Amino acid sequence: MAEKQVTHALQGHVKHQGLPVAGVNIRVTAPSFVMHTAQKDEPLQEVVTGSKGEFSFALPSGSYIVDVIPSGRTRFLKERLSDIELTSNTTCNVSLTTGTLLTGSVIAPSGERLHNAEVMAIGIEPTPYAATSGIDDDGTYALVLPKGKFHVASRHRSDRDDTNVDSTENSNGFACNPYVNTQVHVVNVVVDGSLDILLPDLCKFHGQIEDVFGHAVVNAKVKLVPVLTNQDHIVVKEFDLYAECLSDADGCFEMLLEKGVYELEIVPAPLATHFGLKESNIRISNDTERKFILEEGHKLKGEVLYEDTPLSSCLVRAQDASSSKEFIAKTDKFGQFSLGVPGGNYKLIVVAHPRNAPTVTIDGAEHTGIAPWSKIVMVGGDTHVSVDLRAGTALQGRVRDDSGQARAGMQISVFADGAEGLGPETTDPVLALAHSVTDADGRYSIFLSPGAYSIVVHKDFENATPIEVGSEPVNQDIIWHGWCQIMFELVGEDGNPVPRCQMEYHPYGERADDDGPDDDASSNLPRGYVLTDEDGCCQVTIPQGVYTFRFNPPNSGSYEAKDIRQLSISADITRKVVLNLKRNV
C-alpha cells in the first residue's frame, strides 16, 4: 500500500573563496521522471540563497540534480550537482569559481540592437560548458564562460516585455518578429572579449490562421523549425534554433526566416476547440504568405484525483486509436486538463508526477506508488472524463543477459495488451503506458493496475515479455538476449577527452543516410547517433550485428574525424578511440 510521503532536507551553502554568495538561484530537478515528449519538465523546487549563502529544500527520497545559477552579470560560473541520492537529510556545499565575460549585441541589418533575443554558447573544448544570456535594457548580453573555445549563436526570445523599449520598426521587422538565423560563430575565450552578432537579411513569412468558417484563430502557438540534414549542422540542432509566436487578434503572425526547408506546428490556445496542424517540407526561398485552416474539434477535458485530492502536473496523453497521433496536456494546480481533439476513439493515459505521489519502499529504495490510469474514450462531442488514480500493484524483477550479468541503465517500457497482444502498430516507446530504468543490479519496479501487459526492454519489441498483474506483487525476471552495450571513450592524441563528439552508427555496407534494402538482413539493424559527454564518453545499446561507426568531433575543434568501417558486435564492448590532431597546412 502507498505510504504517506516522507521528506528529507537537501541543504547547503554557496560560497566563493570561503565567503558566502547571496542571490544565487538554486533549482532541483528529478531525472527519473521521463516524460517521453518534447516538453521539458519544470524544476521541482527553486530557491535563492540567503545572506549567508544558505539554501534548503524539503524533498522525498529519490535521485536529484541541483543546478546552481549565479546572476548573469557576475563572473561566477554555474555549477551542477548530479546523481544526488537523497535517503536522509543531506548537505551539499557548493564552491563557485569565476570565469571570463563575453559581451556584445545582436544587431539587425538596419544597425539597431535587438532586445527580443538571447545569446547561447556551447563549449567545443576543453569543456562542453553551456551558458545563455538574455538582452539587457541597454541592448547588450553578457555570457560568463570558462576559458576555452565555444560555439555561439542567437535566437528570438519571446518572454521579454518590450513595451517600454524604443523599438522603431525597421524595414525587416527585426524589432518585434521572431527569427531563425542558423549562423554559428566560433569564439576562443582567453580573456574578457566582445562579439556583436550581425543578423543577415531574412525572408518574411506571413501567415494567417482561420477556422473552416473563415473566422480568425487567436492565440494559436506557431512554431517553425529548420530541417537540417548537413553534417555540419549538428551544432545547430544542439542550439535548438527555431521561431515561435502567437497569432494575433486577426489570426495573423509573421516570422523572419533563412532560406531553407522548415517544419510547421500550430497548437491552438488551451481553451480552443480547434485541433492542431503539422506540415513538413515548407520551402522558403523568398518572402512568403500562407493561409492555414484549422478544423473544428471537440473539447476533451477532465479532472485527476487521488484519494479525493486534485493532482497537479500529471501527464495526460490522448492516443488516437486510428492513427499515430497523440495529444498531450498537463493538469493544472486544480487537477484539471483540457485538450482539443477531432472526433474518434482515444486511449487516454494519465501518469502522476513523482513529486505529488506517495511512495512505496522496496529493497530500501522508494518508488512512486500510483499506477498509470488508462481508458478507451469515444469523443463525438465535448467530453468530460473523471480520473481517479489509485495505488498500484508492484511489478518488479531483474534484467540479466545469458551469462547472468545484470543489465544496468536499461529502459523498461510497459504496454497494455489489446485483444491480440502487442501489435506492430504499438512498437513505439512513446506509446508505452509506463517506464522504469534498471539500477546497478539490473532491478526495475513499476506500479500498475490489474491487467494484461507486455514488458519491452530498451527497444527490443520482438522479444516482449507478456505478464499478468493482479492484486499481489509480481516478480518477473528477464533474460535479455542478443543486445549489447557499446561504450566508447573518445580522447585526442594529446590525451584530452573529446566532448560533444558525434558517434554515428549504421549497418556495415550501408550509407548513414540510407534506409537499407528491404531484402537485406542488415536493414533490420538500427542506425543513429549520440554525443559524447564532458568526459568524452558515449554509450548505445544495439542488437548483435556488423556496424560502421564514425566519430565526428566539432568541426571547429582540434581533432580529425575517424571511422571504424567494420566492427562485429556480439557482446558488450568498451573501447578507447584516439582522434588525431588536425595538422596545420
Structure annotation, total helices: 1
Largest sheet: 5 strands, mixed
Question: CATH class of the largest domain, please?
Answer: Mainly Beta
Mean pLDDT: 85
End-to-end CA span: 70 Å
- Beta-strand proportion: over 45%
CATH architecture of the largest domain: Sandwich
CATH topology of the largest domain: Immunoglobulin-like
CATH homologous superfamily title of the largest domain: Immunoglobulins
Class computed from helices, strands and strand pairing: mainly beta
Number of domain units: 5
Task: Summarize this structure as a short list of keywords or feature phrases.
585 residues, mainly beta, Immunoglobulin-like, five-stranded mixed β-sheet, four-stranded antiparallel β-sheet
